[in-house]
Specification:
Layout lengths: L14 H24 L7 H22 L4 H35 L1 H21 L9 H13 L4 H8 L5 H11 L5 H13 L3 H15 L5 H14 L6 H13 L4 H13 L3 H14 L5 H16 L17 H6 L5 H21 L4 H13 L3 H14 L4 H14 L4
């Protein structure tokens, strides 16, 4: 299915203004940090002042000894006491010198911090943030996405964009032909034939006629089939017209898996990953294991859950056959010859099993794509033609097989 997305318009603030404000704030914070780191303790004047006083005291002791006011023993005791104080002051002055030296070395730290953290922060924001966009709370964000879904292009507009505009003359001819047909089974048969032949415009008009004939008796499958062919016609895009058919299908039967899958696809295209997850999770965990949409859901639901902010580990698939993505990755470390032999062996096993036991549409889809990867296109075309026969009358399965053929370069 198409990976197209659509959403409401966003009001972006000027990129220049944003970066100017961000730079100013970064500079302000950096200046505060630099100032704090460069601010070293102020060297006190006390140690130097004390040394001067102690020198004066020593001189005074010498004078008192000369005058005879103190004896030699007293003079020696006083000199020892003053000398001890001089040593203490000298140690204090040395400690302050070391702190000052360390402070000068720390002067380079702020520059290193700014040089590393500022570019790192900008790089992280550029990768994880959304430059140029204002903050938006969750509810306004969801409301904007819902508005985008409601205002998305119509079926006709999308076909014009894709260069697949419908042919007015064909519509006129079909309207004249179908006006006379009132047998539902005849219309269902013609729908399957047109759909399988890759004639979406005819299939749509036939299915619309069927719904008109059935009226209130139309079932969930009838509405889902109309949605399916509309989506196929638009290259996977779920238009408002397809949505209307899906709503009618789910109103008739809320458990219709095809309808639930396509509704999830619509929400995925509109950016409502939470709603896509809500519709897809029950299909993966409790739906039909071999349904064609199960493989598509399994491949993408992990990413959908992550985008929705939900932690989710998909349950392991049971009974997978043939080369998977993990098998292909494991083959990456092999030599080209061994890798080719491994893949061809897996393809041969899958081909033999489908020929003898049959399998799900997922298995046929995997075989077609694997043969295309091996550049065995004639064999892939044969398998595709055989698969169409196997799933004749099952539009959903045929739609997925047709997608595999188109993407593999086969003739659908």
């Amino acid at each position: 299915m198409s990976g197209r997305t659509y959403g409401g318009s966003k009001q972006a603030m000027s990129g220049g203004l944003f970066w100017a404000v961000a730079a100013a704030l970064a500079a302000l914070v950096a200046s505060v940090l630099i100032g704090a780191l460069r601010r070293s303790p102020v060297a006190g004047a006390a140690p130097n002042a004390d040394l001067s006083v102690y020198r004066d005291q020593l001189a005074e002791v010498d004078r008192d000894l000369e005058r005879g006011t103190i004896g030699p023993d007293e003079a020696a005791r006083l000199r020892a006491e003053i000398g001890k104080r001089v040593l203490d002051a000298d140690r204090a002055r040395s400690a302050e010198a070391k702190v000052a030296g360390a402070g000068s070395r720390l002067a380079t730290v702020p520059a290193l911090i700014v040089a590393v953290t500022l570019p790192g922060a900008l790089a992280a924001y550029w990768a994880l943030g959304a430059p140029g966009y204002p903050d938006m709370a969750l509810q306004p964000r969801l409301a904007a996405l819902d508005a985008g879904i409601a205002g998305r292009p119509s079926q006709e507009a999308e076909l014009q964009t894709l260069g697949r505009a419908r042919i007015p003359a064909l519509d006129e001819r079909l309207a004249a032909e179908l006006a006379q047909v009132t047998d539902p089974e005849m219309l269902r048969s013609r729908f399957r034939t047109a759909f399988e032949a890759g004639k979406p415009q005819e299939a749509i008009r036939v299915q619309e006629r069927l719904l008109a004939v059935l009226g209130d008796k139309a079932g969930s499958v009838d509405h889902a089939n109309l949605a399916l062919v509309l989506v196929a016609e638009a290259g996977g895009y779920v238009s408002p017209e397809a949505e209307a058919a899906l709503r009618a299908s789910l109103q008739a039967d809320m458990s219709n898996e095809l309808a639930r899958y396509l509704v999830g696809e619509m929400f995925l295209q509109g950016g409502r990953f939470d709603q896509a997850f809500r519709f897809w999770r029950p299909l993966l965990e409790g739906g039909t294991p071999d349904a064609p949409w199960t493989a598509s859901i399994r491949e993408r639901i992990g990413d959908v859950a992550e985008l929705a902010g939900i932690r989710y580990a998909p349950p392991e698939a049971a009974g997978q056959n043939g080369p998977t993505a993990e098998d292909m990755a494991a083959a990456g470390d092999m030599s080209p010859e061994d890798r080719q032999a491994m893949i061809e062996g897996m393809v041969a096993q899958l081909s033999d099993r489908l020929a003898t036991e049959g399998g799900s549409v997922e298995d046929w889809n995997r075989l077609i794509r694997s043969l295309a990867v091996l550049e065995r296109l004639p064999e892939a075309q044969t398998i595709y033609d055989e698969a169409k026969t196997k799933f004749e009358g099952r539009p959903a399965e045929l739609s997925f097989l047709r997608l595999a053929a188109v993407e593999s370069g086969l003739n659908p």
